């Protein structure tokens, strides 16, 4: 893998934190900084570009916007319909339009989960206590 070198100005207190972390983890400051950037800007090449951009951009949202993004966006009605289509498929093959509807609902569900997970991850990085999985708000 090719490596690019760039000069970066880092405030002294932050640099001391980088040094402390490097010492504790027995890594170089360069390695700590590179891995921190990788976490902040994860590769999302397997996602649609608009979703990858949205998820990556969440790091710049304020705390209130992140808390809002951590709320479910997949509605109860959507959940009910997806469940209905999944159950119907167990009995007989879905029509082409039903399969397309099911695929669209499943994609929306996955987007909702990814948005919520990314928002909670950024909040956790900022030092906020995030709820346990069982305490997360959900559609029910």
Describe the 3D structure:
The chain is mainly α. The chain has six helices and no strands. Helix 5 packs across helix 6. The longest helix has 30 residues. The radius of gyration is 20 Å and the shape is elongated. The mean pLDDT is 88.
Q: Please indicate the percent range of residues in DSSP E strands (runs of 2 or more).
A: under 5%
The overall pLDDT average reads 88
Rg, alpha carbons: 20 Å
Order of helices and strands: HHHHHH
Task: Tell me the structural class.
Answer: mainly alpha
Principal-axis shape: elongated
Helix amount, in percent? 55-70%
- Report low-confidence residues grouped into runs of 5 or more: none
Report a brief summary of the structure:
Helices cover 63% and strands 0% of the residues. The protein is mostly helical and 140 residues long.
Descriptive terms for the model:
about 140 residues, mainly alpha, 6 helices, elongated
Question: Mind sketching the topology for me?
Answer:
Elements: H1 12-25, H2 29-40, H3 49-57, H4 63-69, H5 76-91, H6 96-125
Helix pairs in contact: 1-2, 3-6, 4-6, 5-6
């Amino acid at each position: 893998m090719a490596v690019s070198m760039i000069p970066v100005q880092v405030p002294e207190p932050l640099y001391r934190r980088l040094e402390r972390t490097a010492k504790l983890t027995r890594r170089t400051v360069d390695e700590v900084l590179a891995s921190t950037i990788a976490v902040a800007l994860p590769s999302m090449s397997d996602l649609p570009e608009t979703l990858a951009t949205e998820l990556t951009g969440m790091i710049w949202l304020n705390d209130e916007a992140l808390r809002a993004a951590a709320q479910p966006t997949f509605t109860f009605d959507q959940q009910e319909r997806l469940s209905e289509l999944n159950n119907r498929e167990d009995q007989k093959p879905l029509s082409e339009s039903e399969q397309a509807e099911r695929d669209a609902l499943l994609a929306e569900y996955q987007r909702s989960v990814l948005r919520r997970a990314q928002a909670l991850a950024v909040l956790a990085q900022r030092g906020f206590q995030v709820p346990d999985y069982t305490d997360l708000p959900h559609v029910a």
